[in-house]
From TrEMBL:
It comes from Metarhizobium album. The keyword Metal-binding applies. It holds the Pfam family Aldedh. One of its GO terms (molecular function) is oxidoreductase activity, acting on the aldehyde or oxo group of donors, NAD or NADP as acceptor. The keyword Metal-binding applies. Residues 20-480 form the Aldehyde dehydrogenase domain. The active site is at E253. This is Aldehyde dehydrogenase. Belongs to the aldehyde dehydrogenase family. Keywords: Metal-binding, NADP, Oxidation, Oxidoreductase, Potassium.
Length: 487
């Protein structure tokens, strides 16, 4: 039994200008629990007319917020972080019911979001410029100014964490923000606005509820200074096209088909644990950073494969709102069906099913989008399962023998987000870290993010870096000022 009551937000509209608004066309979407199929109520389906109103309010908000001294802005951000911490369990439970991820994991998402408010609050005085020597009687210096209204469009896999945490950097830099949560899991974003909205001057923090039409309107509008996305590559392409009309700067965190590489000297049990841990089965592999291709040297391949079932056994699909659950439900029926299709594709291509590959038998889970943690072995890089992002609980294990060929296979995909390397051979670790086309590399570690370090992708996995000082600076622009004192 869950001791924390599920408090769904009472509002279902859009939050802008410091107030709640019904969608102008009165269009709503149904919000359903992916684990039980239960209707959780309706949320606004905001259109381009709503986007106009949100943007106008955010422009007003920007005019106030840009003049609030940085340390004052920091104080308000810390208050937001404290309120998120205070309501962490409640927000986590909403995400579990609405998005399907286990409660205990969403609880840590809420703590991480609060941590990012604190982190960027601490960086407000790092929006520094330079002074450039010019000789006597002249001063030349640069300042950094906020951009204006920033739109941040986010994905469904960590709905609350993305909607909350991604507001922190642009706000710290003096921009107003419009957060666009994913339409399949928007309830925690609505609750966030109920909880922290009042801390900011009207129009500074706004939440635009809606689907693709809302996202497209924000990407196109001339009064949006910058648009960012956490989402898929096709959406990134659509936004880039839309934003090109007004040459908006972009910050994209997109998909991944990431590799884990184990060298011959690595300990098979440690590798097996990392291979499974790197899949993020807790939230059904729905993570851009999941290492969904495990390249294991042939000399330890059999020993690693033999140990995989023991590590997979930790993940048992269950109702996400139960604090004991270790693996949740897939966010939507559409995504669930995509996962099942990829299981068939992998089998048809000749991959060998080692574990899972089907719905769990538990009758309590009959109405939800549940799939067992699924492991294919003897995969090779020509198979579709090794090239396409599933964004689901499917792991591919590939044997390798020749290092150069293995690195070519690792780099053969259009993505380049993360890579995890397992070896105690310093030279091999360094060769592989330098050779992989990925923006974030672990050696003898997997799955973790470290606040303060730049997270982002190579190739089609993204543009720009987050969770670090460059995220803050991305929401500023430099101005050079040249002053002549001499007569
Ligand atoms: P998605 O691209 O379908 O949707 C993401 C957001 O974009 C949603 O809010 C959606 O409403 C909006 N959107 C959709 N079409 C749009 C358009 N034409 N114009 C503007 N906005 C539009 O992605 P998803 O299915 O929610 O999430 C899964 C994807 O996100 C995966 O590819 C995953 O790898 C990626 N992701 C990346 C990271 C990262 O940090 N690199 C993190 C999480 C998820």
């Amino acid at each position: 039994m869950n001791a924390i009551p599920l408090n769904l937000p009472t509002r279902r509209g859009l939050y802008y200008g410091g107030e709640w608004h019904a969608p102008k066309t009165n269009r709503y979407l149904q919000s359903k629990s992916p684990s039980t199929g239960e209707l959780l109520g309706e949320i606004a389906d905001g259109t381009s007319d709503d986007a106009e109103a949100v943007i106008a309010a955010a422009q007003q908000g920007f005019r106030t917020w840009r003049d609030v001294p940085p340390l004052e802005r920091a104080k308000i951000l810390r208050e937001a972080g404290a309120l998120i911490r205070k309501h962490g369990d409640e927000l986590a439970l909403i995400d579990s019911a609405d998005g399907g991820n286990p409660f205990h994991e969403m609880r840590s998402d809420a703590a991480k979001a609060a941590g990012q408010f604190d982190f960027f609050a601490g960086l407000v005085t790092e929006m520094k410029g330079d002074s450039i020597p010019m000789g006597p009687g002249v001063v030349n210096f640069t300042t950094r100014e906020p951009l204006g209204v920033v739109a941040r469009i986010v994905a469904f896999n960590h709905p609350f964490m993305f909607t909350a945490a991604k507001a922190a950097a642009p706000l710290a830099a003096g921009n107003s923000v419009i957060m666009k949560p994913p339409e399949v899991a928007s309830l925690s974003a609505i609750r966030l606005a109920e909880i922290i909205g009042h801390l900011f001057p009207a129009g500074v923090f706004n939440v635009a509820i809606g689907g693709r039409e809302m996202g497209a309107a924000l990407s196109t509008h001339p009064d949006i200074a910058m648009v960012t996305l956490i989402g898929s590559v096709p959406t990134g392409r659509a936004i880039m096209k839309a934003a090109s009309e007004t040459l908006k700067p972009l910050l994209f965190e997109l998909g991944g088909k990431n590799a884990l590489i184990a060298f011959p000297d690595a300990d098979p049990d440690e590798v097996a644990s990392a291979v499974i841990g790197g899949m993020n089965f807790t939230w059904c592999g729905q993570s851009c950073g999941s290492t969904s291709r495990a390249f294991i040297h042939e000399s330890i391949y059999a020993a690693v494969v033999e140990k995989l079932p023991k590590h997979v056994a930790k993940y048992r699909p269950g109702l996400p709102t139960d604090p004991a659950t270790t693996m949740g439900a897939i966010v939507s029926r559409e995504q669930y069906e995509k996962v099942l299709r990829y299981i068939d594709v992998a089998k048809a291509d000749g991959a060998k099913l080692l574990l899972g590959g089907k719905r769990p038998d538990d009758p309590k889970l009959a109405e939800g989008n549940f799939v067992e943690p699924t492991v294919f072995v003897d995969v090779n890089q020509t198979m579709r399962i090794a090239n396409e992002e599933v964004f689901g609980p499917i792991l591919s294990v590939l044997p390798w023998s020749d290092e150069k060929q293995m690195l070519r296979d690792v780099n053969a995909v259009e993505y380049g987000l993360t890579c995890s390397i397992w070896t105690n051979d310093l030279k091999a670790a360094h060769r592989a870290a330098a050779g992989v086309e990925a923006g974030f590399v672990w050696v003898n570690e997997v799955a973790k993010h470290f606040l303060g370090t730049p997270f982002g992708g190579y190739k089609q996995s993204g543009i720009g870096r987050e969770e670090c000082l460059s995220e803050l600076l991305a929401f500023t622009r430099e101005k050079n000022i040249h002053v002549r004192f001499a007569g």
